[in-house]
Input
Amino acid sequence: MRSITIIGANGRLGAALAREYSRDFEVRAFGRNELDLGNLDHVRSIVSETEFDLLINCAALTNVDYCESHRDEAFLINAMAPGLIAKICREKSARLIHISTDYVFDGNAATPYTEETKASPLGIYAESKLAGEDEVLKVSPDNLVVRLSWVFGPDKPSFIDQIIQRAQEHDAVAAVADKFSSPTYTIDVVNWLLLALDNEAQGILHLCNSGACSWQEWAQYAIDVCRGLGIPTKAERVGALSLSDMKNFVARRPLYTVLSTANFTALTGVQPRHWREAIAEYISVHISKK
Ligand SMILES: NC(=O)c1ccc[n+]([C@@H]2O[C@H](COP(=O)([O-])OP(=O)(O)OC[C@H]3O[C@@H](n4cnc5c(N)ncnc54)[C@H](OP(=O)(O)O)[C@@H]3O)[C@@H](O)[C@H]2O)c1
Output
C-alpha cells in the first residue's frame, strides 16, 4: 500500500490519521471544504478522480442531538455517501475502511458487545450510522467497518479536554456516573488500523482502549493525572451526575456500550493498551502545565 485518501480530515480522528500516515504514505486528505458528503455528484467526481490504494472515511454528521431533527441530512452523510464511496472504491479495486460507532447498540447489555451482537440503535444518528455500515458492507463484505467509542485525541477537543478545562476554572465539576464505555485514543487507532489491514480484516471490527469506565471515572482519572504531573486544577474531585440529569440532551444515549476487542486481539495478537495508560500519555504530551 502506497497512497491513502482520508475523508473527514479536519475531524478529531481524520486529522490524526492524516498527519500520522503522512510520515510513511502518500496521503490525500479531504476536509468538508474540499469534499462535501452532502453533494453526491461532487463525491463521485472527486473520489473517482483521486488515486489511492486505501480510503478511510472518518467524516460523519456526529452531533447526535442535531441529527434528531435533521434525519434526511444524517442519512445522506452517514449512510448514502458512504454507500457511494464504497461503490467507487470497488470500481477502483481499492480498500475501504469506514468508521462507525458504539452507538449502534441500545446499551442494555451488561457485558461487552461483540461484532456478532445484533445492533439496535436508539436515535437518528445511531440509525443513520448503522445504515452506513449496511450500505458499505452491501457493496462488498470485504470492506472494513471499524466501530469506535468515546474518541479523544490532540486534534480536536472532546469531553476529556472540556472537563479538564472546567476543573481548571471552577471549584466543583461533575460528570455522568451511570453511562459506561471505553475511551479510544486517536493516536492508538493509527497503528490498530494498519495492523487490521495487515491481517486482512474485513466486515465489522470493534476497536477501543482496554477497560471500561463511566464519564465520571474517566474525568476523575484525568484530573488525578493532571495534578500528579503538576498541572493545577481548582476542582480535585468529580461529582456524580445521572444521565437523566442531562436535560439538554435531545437524543437518547445508550447506557452501556463497552465494545469487546477480542476479535481484534485474536486477529492481530495485539491487545489495546488500557485507557488509563492512553489518557496518561495524552495528558503528559498534550496538556500544558501553563
Ligand atoms: N467522537 C466520538 O466519541 C465517536 C465515538 C464513536 C464513533 N465515532 C465515529 O468516529 C468517526 C470520526 O469521529 P470524530 O470524533 O473524528 O468526529 P468529528 O471530529 O466530528 O469529525 C467528523 C468530521 O466529519 C466532517 N463532516 C461533517 N459533515 C460533513 C460533510 N457533509 N462532508 C464532509 N465532511 C463532513 C466534519 O466536518 P466539520 O468539522 O466541518 O463539521 C468533521 O471534520 C465518525 O464516524 C464517528 O461517527 C466517534
